[in-house]
Description:
The chain is mainly α. It folds into two domains: 1-52; 53-105, G Protein Gi Gamma 2, CATH 4.10.260. Helices cover 62% and strands 0% of the residues. It has five helices and no strands. The chain has helices at residues 5-21, 23-51, 61-66, 81-87, 95-103.
Amino acid sequence: MKMNRRVFIKACGVMAGYAVLGANLTKEAVASTMDFVGLRQTSVYTADAKIYKVRKSQDNPMIKKIYDHEHGFLHEGPCGHMSHHLLHTHYNDRSARLAALKNKGFKFNL
Length: 110
C-alpha cells in the first residue's frame, strides 16, 4: 500500500488520539471537529453571499484605485512592468536536482 505524507500524518494523529483518549473519546472529538468544520463552512458561504458586496477582485474599488490611469500606483495597468515585478513570483527550476536524487534511488510520492 502506498501512503503519501498527508495520509501518514492523518493516520498517526488518529492512532495517537486512540492511544491517549481511547476509542469513545476520539470518536466524540472527531465528530465535534466535523461539526465545527460544517458550521465554519456554512458561515463562510453565508458571509460570501449576504455580507460582502464585492465578490470579484476586479470590482473592488481599492483595486480600481490602484490601477487608475491618472493617479494610481500601478497606472500602467494589470499587465504593466511594475505590477508584474511586485505581484508575480519567480520560478526556480529544480528539476535537475530532483532527477539527480531519483538517479541515486530516492523515490518520491508527489
